[in-house]
Design brief:
By secondary structure, this protein is α+β, with helices and mostly antiparallel strands. Helices cover about 40% and strands about 20% of the residues. A hairpin with a 4-residue loop joins β5 (about 145-150) and β6 (about 155-160). Molecular chaperone. Has ATPase activity.
Amino acid sequence: MRKFKTESKKLLDLMINSIYTNREIFLRELISNASDAVDKLNFKGLTDSSVQVDQDSLAIRLSVDPEARTLTVSDNGIGMTADELERNLGTIAHSGSQEFKSENAEHQGNTLDIIGQFGVGFYSAFMVAKKVRVVSRAFGEDVAHVWESDGLEGYTISEGERETHGTDVILTLRDNLPGEQGEPGESFETYLTEWGLKDLVRRYSNYVRYPIQMLVTKSRPKPEPAKDDEQPSSSQTTDAQGDSSAEHGTASASDSEGKADASDVAHAADASSHAPEYEEYEELETLNSMTPIWKKRSSEVEDEEYAEFYKSTFHDWEAPARTISFHAEGTLEYDALLFIPGKAPFDLYSREYEKGLALYSSNVMIMEKCADLLPDHFNFVRGIVDSADVSLNISRETLQQDRQLRAIASRIEKKIGSELAEMRDKDREAYETFFENFGRGLKFGIYSSYGMKASELADLLLFWSARENRMVTLDEYARSMPAGQTAIYFAAGDDRTRLSKMPVVRSVLSRGYDVLLCTADVDEFTLQAMRVYEAKGLPKVFEDETARAAAETAVADGAEPELEDRSIEFKNVASGDIDLASEDEKKTAEEATRAHKDLFQAMKEALDGKVERVSVSARLVDAPAAITTEGPVSLEMEKVMARGPEAEGADLPRSVRVLELNAEHPVFAKLTASFEQKDQERLSLYTGLLYDQALLVEGMLPEDPVAFAERICELM
């Protein structure tokens, strides 16, 4: 026996027990090695005219012997000499594939696509096998050689027999392990079953370019036995029945017909009583599909093919809303096939949801969900990325964080964004459906990045326009702003109908300005994170009247209108700093506030610290009162935080509330009359009612519903 070197033995032990975290990938590694061997032979045939290779016969074969507990992976590739067995399998971490790849780097591409690079994948077999036997015959040689090891101390190499070139890797599987202390045991039987091997091939090696074949057992109905169609001739029948017929006249004919009918019925009944019998037979079946759909150009694939692939691969009942296929070439080459689902999965916004794209390297699946390929705001995207250029770790189970991976992720993010923008512009109905499903994630992407992603995501957002009664983009809102509007106005709440009826919303609308009605819990947080919207190509605003007139004259003479980029601030209509009133309206409100300061002080005391101050409003039209806020926390933000998972027992920030009164409303006269009559009890009653009423308008319950009901009854 040839001993493993000390460092090789340590590496083997480390690899079997530590490097690989999932035993079942051993088959992926062995199939990848077999594919490499076939690739090398195929390459030799393409580059050496003296070598004739029947490409149609190139294949990988799986076979099992349950009684002997062996699984064999065979290929008809280039095979290995004794020296190559010693070099490739006797020295751990030496990669013949990597060596071959380096020597023929100029041929990389369609004719050469070697998978293995680390020289350790073969040894993953020892995770499931107690003995591995490799029988290999190199192309052009007459003698085969056998490498054999138990993965413990060393290996042997001897001469053997194999009919043709290629390699057989024969695994003798480990014995099943019983469970201990209530823990389940470990079974290796799956790797000896047809369904188990089919499943592993489908998941990890479905797109290896050569057929992976296996004899599978099937059943079919047994052929029915030949029927005895021989019947007596008509002359024999006549002779036999002659005397009887003569004696009984026509009665015998009638009897004969009756007997024939009964016989037919009996025969039919007998046939129907026998269920069809089945027999088993073996058939060589190709387990993998070989041709990855993501390698094809989109012009070569029908939409129905993409839809079927998506539904079967990602277990969705509905076709995708959009399919994105692209192929990157140059210093970093990869293929990507992405899908935007038709609807959001039920667990999309739960902690259990896992984002990520399936990562393949040379058609072999490396990771089922590579989270690093998708930003959180596009976590709903499903799909596949296939690249031979990404740097993998030694087990090929995880990626190393390198610039290649970041470059692919960046390109994917931009591609998804551009595809969504195209859907928004060319198929608005479909985009609005998409946004209903996934828009919350885009908004959260801006909020969670503290506004850093606003430049990429802002134009993908949709909000409900109170004026136009439809969903609009921020760009559409900005372009429809009348002259003199300097902010984007919004109202936040949980119900669009209620928001549209709020006094502060009606006030802004009455002045000709639109209001975005924001009903998602993340909306206001998103707009605060953005602070401003960077609008592009808006008509230029001229502060100088002479310049404006000159520009209008130039346009009338055929010149292009002057455009400008503009930063437009977001403003909550319920915020106290909204300044839409005219100078006269503001002056009147300020004078009324000063004139009734004692009344307002009494009302503030009656509310016992619930408001920062009471004042006359310059913006209310027909409502008697409204609650506005000062500072960064609005009433809606306060509500959202109170509903959050960390709200219980937490000292959450509260909004700074202001009770604004409409001095033109009849209720204001009631307040002043009560104050002047020194009727403190009635003033407190009115104040409490106005405050609770304003809360209800904001979609918030009174802090003391019982007291609110009692005040109503007292007035009645």
